[in-house]
Amino acid sequence: MERSAVASARRTPSVPEYNISTSTLAFDQHFTTTAQGIFLMAEIVFGMLVWILIGGTDYFHLSALCWVMFVAISFWILTVCLFIIYLTGVHNRIPCVPWTTLSLCFHCSATTLYLVTAAVDALSVNQAIRGRHNYNCWAASAFFAFLTTLCYAGSSYLSYRVWKTSGEEQ
């Protein structure tokens, strides 16, 4: 009898038990109705339209449009990550990160780079033949790039107001 107890103890590996039934991440359903949430969703949608419209053309022949693609995809990925962070409330669970300062720096840099990108995109439209696929897509992407710039500028303003009113250390 003693031998069977020892054998069964050997067969069952000792695995640490983790409580995985409770999660610390929560979905903040009211975030998407705030001005910040609406701006972030608009940035995601318009930014995605910019890189999809350019990506469906022969953009690689123009180095300026490669820059547009780089900025559009980079900021789209970063904006999606920031949206998920705010949506799940991670920013409240990691207080050591200065989130208001980070958000302000991110949105101001995105506004600046997207403004340059939108101008480059608009100037690159002249390289295509009017009425052709590339021309139409590049013109539409320039329009959405300017809309994305406006959204990032709005987010910058909101981030500045929050940063100014909070006593967060820089």
TrEMBL record:
Subcellular location: Membrane
GO process terms (BP): myelination
Key word Transmembrane helix present: yes
MF-aspect GO terms: structural constituent of myelin sheath
Chain segments annotated as transmembrane: 35-54, 66-87, 99-123, 135-155
Record-annotated MARVEL domain positions: 31-164
InterPro entries: MAL, Marvel, MARVEL-CKLF_proteins
PROSITE patterns, sorted: MARVEL
Pfam families: MARVEL
Membrane topology label: Multi-pass membrane protein
Keywords, sorted A to Z: Membrane, Transmembrane, Transmembrane helix
One GO cellular component, as annotated: membrane
Annotated protein name in UniProt: CKLF-like MARVEL transmembrane domain-containing protein 8b
Species per Swiss-Prot/TrEMBL record: Stegastes partitus (bicolor damselfish)
Gene (name only): cmtm8b
